[in-house]
């Protein structure tokens, strides 16, 4: 799968014991990765039962991690290949496709091809998540679905309407097309299944696989979420920042990012009408956005002749590439492709987020690249341009080992349908889209303003009373005053004192709305006659 | 004779003396002592100890003593125990001292007798008893003597009466004595060890036992007083607790292991009984009488055979007896007669003419019918159809709507004058009308439309004379609608071009004029009609108290002059029909809200605020008003204009109404929120064409528009700003950020003057704001500052991170730590690992998400059994079978292990106890 252009030389042979140790070390390292964080510190736990249970649990986790590490050893045999310079003076970006093609295997050679489709105008492309199928959408209404594995055109048809974007839904059975007026859903035979009239004049589409949500922006600067399993419109928000066709979803948390003309990048989720994060990325309209598969990096291109790579953990631009880019895409292995006019560049992280130019490619002059998309699980970059489509080889771009649980390029129809059912069962609700999905199931931090519930107050009160009861020390008093009844009374008093603040709190919660706010005269009203000042209203902002 | 009998008696008693002496103890009475004193010297061969024991005894009455036969004993004893004379003396000495001190009677005895104690050991007094007996009888008439005599006498009497020799009765007496003695035995409290030892003398272990007893006596032990009960219990509890703890701690290992085990398995192979119905049926055995009979019938060989061979033979078996036939006939006859009687009864009932009876009957029938309705959907449908018909009829005829002659007459006279019954009747009629008119179980629910309903309402309120009015109103409405539509129509395609638009507008205006003319005409005719209809209406209004009661529509207080009412009424009608003719005349400026208030049955007082509010409401409700409003204003200078501007990458068409005061619009262009068709069109054209072309096109159109003063170009500065929108992005972003900050952490309101006290005299202004207000404000400001600092985006200039709480996502998180956890770290650490199949290899998966308890359905969980567990055992083995601790017998190895464990481990608690 992954071709190794100039792979590392095999390491010098070591003594067997050393090798074994190395293997063990490797396993341990991998196991640590699968342990997902450090073991919890159980020393501070007082509850012995819980401690025992957690210890057992931790052991099970450890075993699972080890098994996973071992499985990785066997199930992920291939590594991605890369172009590596033989001497320090050699530059990988000087290597042309023409020099790569003779070196690679026949199967890979067949993956590099061009399709000339001059009539029906600039093409957008989209791959299915398992990399097997490709959609071609010509702006003037040409739609085609191609099995890129078998190089077989599955369906080709004309909608005779402007096509702005195409996207696969869930699998190759259905795909959505943003046409002139509405979004249409077709099946793989080209039959129109649905016309989604809710989102009129769509500009760009995006599909969230785990949530079954079709996201679209439209000409009215709206962001539209529609559940394709139920047909419900989950959300429809006005961005208030102008219509945009720059949209990308974060593969980690399914948050949708929009690039706007004001140089802003906004991030949205379906349950909030305001952007979660607004970033000022460029001093000019944003032309393209792409997310790194880890979800931590985002690349933006602006009209200010810059392409920036941002780290979303720090909200900092970690790298800035000069030049325009009409389109951007990150590959599964983190290569960044950007295209401007007829030139395509691929940048690669050389380690420590140090991006360097990795490959370049240029299609014939005058062709305008509209979309670049890496093909998943293959070292192929697809270019949709004004004269059709071409695909080039970019070594080291695709994930060499596919996980059939996630995506299987060779899946049978039975597997596909099974997977579909499973996906439906595992469908996530739109609320689960959030900036940090890891926080699901964790303890929610209490908001500042949130009031304690009655029950919680009661619980606190009981705790306080218990503490007082156990700690209260009643002094011995003189003869007449030390009767048991009096002592009991004193004790009771103490308990009541401890209860008092909580009781007051409870009363407050019972009272409901606080006292009416005192109406305060406004300065605006001052120019009115005194008698009328009280009628002055505060204008809603 | 007396002597002989006495002797006899003594002889008989002698045999018993020993026992008497040993058992009958010290607490003898004075009488006894007296007797003893008499017998002194004659008692011998007694142990010292024994004698000492014979201290004082209870003072018994004579009769009792007689019964006890003490005297006889004494005598016999003196006779028998002649050997130990010396010892006896000692005893008597002691006894006598006491006796002498206590009673003066003893003094009567001469001292010589006292000396008899000092008789030598070997003194023989074998002959004495007889003498003494004589002595006794001779010397004194002591009680003893008397007793004896009594006994004698009694015996003699018995002898005389029965004729049986004396001996027989003597024996009886003896027996009685024995019984009494044994009773005394029980009563006596102190039994010494010696008493118990005495009978053992001569037995094999006697000497050693005696030695031990003596030893013990030499060094007397003082027994401590027993502890109080509570203490004793405490000690006992302590001990038992120790044992119990030992027992329980033994279980600790097992319990701990079970508690900490991630999964408990209860899945031993067990026979769970029948699995199928067939299996259950096969095991059936008839038990009750009925079951047995049935079984017998089923298995009757004759029947079975008949069934097997041929159905015909069954007929033969199916014989009917004569008796059965007769029975059947009788039964049928009975039924027939019953039927006949029922018929007769029905006939009679049919003839009944009593109203109450039928009323009751009807009610019953209705009840039954309603019950059936609920059950039967078909009947319900029929009923619904019927209801619908009735409703239609009612709506047509208005039979119950006070339209009858009777009702009219009564209403004319006035309801207040009527008696209660009439009023009730009218109310009932109205109610019936309502009932009939109401839509119930309608066949087609969707047929109703607001139009119809409104017309219905009108029907209620107005007479037929007003139908014409309505028709006019409808016409008016339609024209208004047409006007409205005309406003929107030409916004597509070619017509979108500005000059075309202008032309269209002109034409529209003409059309409007025409339409308005028509409307005016309508109104005029309407007014006329209303004037005519007013009189009749007034009448109804006067009598409309009934209507009032129903809360339909009130026309203000009755005191108000008719003229005013008329005015309002008119307006109201106009208002209801969305007419606008009044507005032109300037009448429709103020009273509108007032009327609405009336309509809404509110208070009559007009308040400015509410009026304003109402006006707003009205405006909102009747959008048509506004449209017409605009239209009117359009007569003057043109106020709406459209500008197309190139901004960023799209055209924006802007329409602003200068006529609207609340929309404070400046010459600058506002971004409309509602995208019109036009924008879309232009947008598309832009996409297909190149940028420059578009700009040119735009400019040319503007050149044309320049001729008109309504359209104005955006200023050059504006254009530049739009073209170079990106230049000022940072500032814009800053502004945005400030806005969001203000929204999420709003700035506290500036303290302002308090309404109320001192306001009129400027006191507040002079003194300034009160301290507390200023302080509050400061505090709020400070808090806001803190909140702003705490924000996640506080450090970044180029980032806004929204901090609004997402209510919907809250349900996906825990509000508090789940039960067993006490620390957040532990909980989250436990949660960090994904346990789904997507993240784990299949071999590790089952261990990760195995349930806590695995149990076969139907399996009975046995109580836990004891098992020795190593406390430091690790939980490596994932599978642990709890049930019975018996492994499956499938493999030999396992069974061996099981046996071993069985041997090693004591199975039950009882066994363990036994072994210890």
What does this structure look like?
Chain A: Residues 477-490 have a biased composition (Basic residues). Chain A: It is found in: Nucleus, Nucleolus. The complex is a heterodimer of chains A (541) and B (916). Chain A has 541 residues and is of the alpha+beta class. Helices cover 22% and strands 30% of the residues of chain A. Chain A has helices spanning 16-35, 48-75, 97-100, 106-109, 413-425, 454-471, 484-511, 530-533, and strands at 113-116, 123-127, 133-138, 142-147, 152-158, 163-169, 174-179, 183-187, 192-196, 202-208, 213-218, 222-227, 233-238, 247-249, 256-259, 264-268, 277-280, 286-291, 297-302, 306-311, 316-322, 327-330, 336-340, 343-349, 355-362, 369-375, 380-385, 388-393. In chain A, the strands form 7 sheets. A 4-stranded antiparallel β-sheet of chain A has the order 1-28-27-26, with no helix packed on it. In chain A, strands 2-3-4-5 form a 4-stranded antiparallel β-sheet, with no helix packed on it. A 4-stranded antiparallel β-sheet of chain A has the order 6-7-8-9, with no helix packed on it. In chain A, a hairpin with a 4-residue loop joins strand 8 (183-187) and strand 9. The two termini of chain A are 60 Å apart. In chain A, 35% of the residues are buried. The model of chain A is unreliable at 1-14 (pLDDT under 50). Chain B is mostly helical. Chain B is 61% helix and 3% strand. Chain B has 43 helices and 5 strands. A two-stranded parallel sheet of chain B has the order 1-5. In chain B, strand 2 and strand 3 form a beta hairpin. The radius of gyration of chain B is 64 Å and the shape is extended. Chain B starts with a helix and ends with a helix. The relative contact order of chain B is 0.05. At the A-B interface, helix 2 and strand 17 of A face helix 14, helix 33, helix 36, strand 4 and helix 39 of B. Strand 17 of chain A pairs antiparallel with strand 4 (799-801) of chain B.
